[in-house]
Sequence to fold (97 residues):
Amino acid sequence: MHFTGLIIAFCTFFVIGLFHPIVIKSEYYFGTRCWWVFCVLGIAFVGLSLLITNVILSSATGVIGASCFWSIGELFAQRKRVEKGWFPKREKKTEKD
Fold:
């Protein structure tokens, strides 16, 4: 039996599940101004995936890179969800805090 596809599927599921709270926390603490971090990481991981010869590791890094790119759009969508009141909005700290 070959488990390569199953391992890649599990890695994909895990990475997508990991990026969901990362996007929420990133928008909460930094707003949408951190989109470029996801872009740079996406480029780096996709580029790295092209250099790795192991199929599973190459696929996993490619999925991480694609998830970084997808997170850019989700970051802006998360801002809209916060504006609708679906997620908490971070209040600005006062000087007393």
